[in-house]
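Quick review question:
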């Protein structure tokens, strides 16, 4: 049976899981979405013939684009907190899906938590999360073509936190004070960061990163299971380690960036360093845009063997979101496998790691 988020979002409970120190969880553990009506979520239908929104590489974004993006995030922050599109509510989504907010009641296992990390649900869940987040931002600035930038950490020109997140901290909606001070620009990201800085020179760190990206995307991702992670279905307990099998990119560069950006002096490494708080850093969505781009690139670099899962348990797994019109909708993995059908694409950026076989 495929995993399904509950119809009754009002059954959501406060976060309890994956917290190092829940007493000091300064962002708060009340992660449940606002309940606007008692109607069941409707199955979401992708708009036909969408205008393609092109997500730019953050380090190449123009000043006009950056201003627009900052304005959109500011508009989100200016909404009343209980509005489903508010910055707080959008950040809570991650907490609810990752820190024990929901259970598997929809599929008959109310005593088991729902978890979308460390398994094949990782890529599709985050794709849908960004999909609505991007549309909401576009709606807030009246620009249906608005596309999120991506943090191009797999290219040497993008291996620092993009400048737009750090400039003018007092007035910049993209700024988050809860980031590790050691890792602000010009510090070069370590795509294998696990809590300790390597001390490598810039040139060396870039070379290390490129060969690591090759390992993550090619050498260690030769088949669907290795790339996507374990087959998590209804009835599996995410608190049991046998059901925590992350794919190469999730376990690798994805988690490394969370740990590298989050402030290690905070009780739960807020913001990026814990599931419950990661969604409160605007950089989260830009990091995940590049993670999402890796899914697309992985399929493109070997069309014969790099394939999406085909099992019904994956295709029919579903999540519940508020869309850009504040409608509660249910979305399925099967509808997120083609980004052009979803109405977006990525600005091209070279992938030098493809020639960096270690
Ligand atoms: Cu849902 Cu980057 O984690």
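Suggested answer, residue by residue:
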């Amino acid at each position: 049976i495929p995993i399904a988020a509950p119809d009754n979002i009002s059954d959501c409970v406060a976060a309890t899981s994956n917290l190092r120190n829940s007493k000091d969880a300064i962002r708060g553990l009340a992660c449940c979405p606002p309940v606007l009506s008692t109607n069941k979520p409707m199955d979401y239908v992708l708009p036909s013939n969408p205008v393609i929104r092109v997500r730019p590489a953050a380090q190449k974004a123009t000043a006009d684009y950056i201003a627009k993006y900052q304005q959109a995030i500011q508009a989100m922050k200016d909404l009343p907190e209980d509005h489903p599109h508010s910055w707080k509510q959008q950040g809570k989504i991650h907490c609810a899906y990752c820190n024990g907010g929901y259970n598997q009641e929809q599929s008959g296992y109310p005593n088991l938590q729902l978890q979308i990390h460390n398994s094949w649900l990782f890529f599709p869940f985050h794709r849908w999360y960004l999909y609505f987040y991007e549309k909401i931002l576009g709606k807030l600035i009246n620009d249906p073509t608005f596309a999120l930038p991506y943090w191009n950490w797999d290219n040497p020109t993008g291996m620092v936190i993009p400048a737009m997140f750090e400039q003018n901290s007092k007035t910049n909606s993209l700024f988050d004070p809860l980031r590790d001070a050691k890792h602000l620009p010009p510090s070069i990201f370590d795509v294998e960061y696990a809590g300790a800085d390597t001390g490598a020179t810039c040139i060396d760190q870039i070379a290390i990163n490129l060969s690591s990206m090759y390992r993550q995307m090619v050498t260690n991702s030769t088949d669907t299971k290795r790339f996507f992670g374990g087959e998590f279905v209804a009835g599996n307990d995410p608190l049991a380690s046998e059901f925590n099998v992350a794919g190469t990119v999730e376990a690798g560069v994805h988690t490394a960036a969370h740990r590298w950006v989050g402030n290690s002096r905070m009780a739960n490494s807020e913001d990026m360093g814990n599931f419950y708080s990661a969604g409160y850093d605007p950089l989260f969505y830009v990091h995940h845009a590049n993670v999402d781009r890796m899914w697309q690139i992985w399929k493109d670099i070997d069309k014969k063997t790099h394939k999406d899962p085909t099992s019904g348990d994956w295709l029919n797994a579903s999540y519940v979101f508020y869309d850009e019109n504040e409608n509660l909708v249910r979305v399925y993995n099967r509808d997120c496998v083609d980004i052009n059908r979803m109405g977006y694409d990525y600005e091209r950026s070279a992938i030098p790691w493809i020639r960096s076989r270690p």
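Why it works: Residues 122-140 form the longest helix (19 residues). The radius of gyration is 19 Å.
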